[in-house]
Design a protein that fits this description.
- It is a single chain.
- The chain is an alpha+beta fold.
- Among the domains are: 1-47; 51-86, no CATH class; 131-248, RNA polymerase II/Efflux pump adaptor protein, barrel-sandwich hybrid domain (OB fold (Dihydrolipoamide Acetyltransferase, E2P)); 417-495, Copper binding periplasmic protein CusF (OB fold (Dihydrolipoamide Acetyltransferase, E2P)).
- Helix content is 21%, strand content 40%.
- It is built from seven helices and 31 strands.
- Helix 4 (166-181) runs antiparallel to helix 5 (184-196).
- The longest helix is centred in the N-terminal third of the chain and has 47 residues, at 2-48.
- It starts with a helix and ends with a strand.
Length: 498
């Protein structure tokens, strides 16, 4: 009896396992069938989507009418479908929750009156425009040198040295003899001769008043200032034209400034400058820009600017430190936070926030930067909202979707490049050979301004008569190309100039 029950139980168990196996197999078959049906539906839906054009995500403004490799980058073109309306509107639509997740922050375009005021430190220097040279007017001998040294501040008329002038003694005697004759005309002629010999008017008057010769003359400072050089010594002989001293005036001084190039755009000769001495900041000196030197400092990339300052009382000295404030004209400008502008080196753009969570890329022309704010010359208007944080994520998404900037000119189809070029037009640039075979050549070339091409890697056809012997991958070359049908063809190839 036990044996029969056992067999009966085993039979029932086997039947149950069989039924279970059939159920699992059926479920797997149905799942596969459902998946296949879903894939078929998806593929059918994709095939039914209308393709508007193909584009390069790295250059979305260029549109193509058929798929294939991009002429700009080493990648395949991406399809733009009719149900993707973002590219047509030129804007991205981002939900409020997504904006918050991205940490997106908006800023308002403001209009302000901005004055081009610049503050820069400088050092006082002696004015090289107010220099007097003292020279020997005749042969002689130095009998005495007064207690002077280079660097001394001397008043006008202060004595420098006593000089014996033998050549003047005879002329003075002749003058006195003619004067004793009482002939006014001859006396005037003799007096004129003393002047022509280089005798100072003061010395001639002294000879006339004293009625005796004066062989020793005292050389004095013609102007007040700093005795920059003193080259006369007691006992030395002099020859005509020899330099004895050099005096730099103190009536005006120079304030030497090192101005950054970015702050020198509105600099003008004669511009008003206010200077404050570091030692006396309460004292304000007003001067004007005297000159802007032609050369910049190669290390600091700054311009040398000379400001001429009055020196009342001759209290200003060379080497003093001062801070100069240059006042320029005021203008009304548009300002946005500097972080809101994406600068690539070739262009600048911002993302304009519109109603409905839409964000539109806009090309802008920028100006100078002031306290974290950037001047917008063109592209925006006051009151508009721009993205100040998170704009790089928006720019990446816009590139992937093929959204062009608002101010960009409408992109023409590049399916037939020859149509946008003059027939037979030849363009020239340089590049590096990446690949080379019998019929094609791939080049990493520089920009082509005539075609508005940036620097990129691109494949070209080779002209049948192109001479390429001696060239290999990695060589830098100068080449010419033209459009033939829907392709570009290299017509000349030569080594680049060093």
């Amino acid at each position: 009896m036990n044996t029969q029950n056992l067999q009966k139980n085993l039979t029932l168990t086997a039947i149950g396992l069989l039924i279970l196996g059939l159920g699992v197999a059926g479920g797997v078959w149905w799942a596969k069938r459902s998946s296949s049906m879903a894939s078929a539906v998806t593929e059918s839906a994709k095939s039914e989507r209308k393709v508007l054009y193909w584009y390069d995500p790295m250059k979305p403004d260029a549109k193509f009418d058929k798929p294939g490799p991009s002429p700009f980058m080493d990648m395949q073109l991406v399809a733009r479908y009719a149900d993707e309306g973002a590219a047509d509107t030129g804007a991205l639509t981002i939900s409020t929750r997504a904006s918050q997740s991205l940490g997106m922050r908006l800023a308002t375009v403001t209009q302000q009156d901005l004055s081009s005021t610049v503050e820069v430190a400088g050092t006082l220097q002696l004015s090289e425009r107010d220099v007097s040279i003292v020279q020997a007017r005749t042969s002689g001998f130095v009998e005495r040198v007064y207690a002077r040294a280079p660097g001394d501040v001397v008043p006008a008329g202060s004595p420098l040295a006593d000089v014996l002038n033998p050549d003047w003694v005879g002329a003075q005697q002749e003058f006195l003899a003619v004067k004793a004759m009482g002939d006014a005309a001859l006396t005037q002629a003799a007096r004129q001769r003393l002047t022509l010999l280089g005798m100072p008017p003061t010395l001639i008057q002294r000879v006339n008043d004293s009625n005796r010769t004066l062989p020793v003359t005292t050389i004095t400072a013609p102007t007040a200032g700093v005795l920059s050089e003193l080259m006369v010594r007691q006992g030395m002989s002099l020859s005509p034209g020899m330099t004895l001293a050099r005096i730099t005036g103190l009536g005006t001084v120079w304030l030497e400034l090192a101005l950054p190039q970015a702050q020198a755009s509105n600099l003008e000769i004669g511009q008003v400058v206010e200077a404050r001495l570091t030692a006396a900041p309460e004292t304000v000196l007003k001067g004007r820009v005297a000159s802007v030197l032609a050369e910049t400092n190669s290390d600091t990339r700054t311009l040398r600017v000379r400001v001429e300052l009055p020196n009342p009382g001759q209290k200003l000295r060379a080497g003093m430190l001062a801070t100069a404030t240059l006042y320029g004209s005021s203008e009304s400008v548009l300002l946005v936070p500097s972080d809101a502008v994406i600068r690539t080196g070739k262009r600048a753009l911002v993302y304009l926030a519109e109603e409905g969570g839409q964000f539109k890329p806009v090309d802008v022309q920028i100006g100078a930067e002031h306290d974290g704010q950037l001047v917008i010359r063109q592209g925006l208007s006051a009151g508009q909202k721009v993205v100040a944080s998170g704009q790089f994520l928006l720019d990446s998404e816009a590139s992937m979707r093929g959204i062009a900037t608002q101010s960009s000119p409408p992109a023409e189809s590049m399916a037939a490049p020859a149509a946008s070029m003059d027939k037979g037009a030849v363009f020239e640039t340089s590049g590096v050979i990446e690949e080379l075979d019998a019929s094609n050549i791939k080049l990493r070339h520089q920009a082509v301004p005539a075609l508005k091409w940036p620097a990129m890697t691109m494949g070209f056809k080779r002209a049948k008569d192109l001479q390429s012997s001696g060239f290999k991958v990695g060589d830098t070359v100068q080449f010419q190309f033209k459009a033939t049908g829907d392709e570009y063809e290299v017509v000349t190839l030569k080594g680049a100039k060093p």
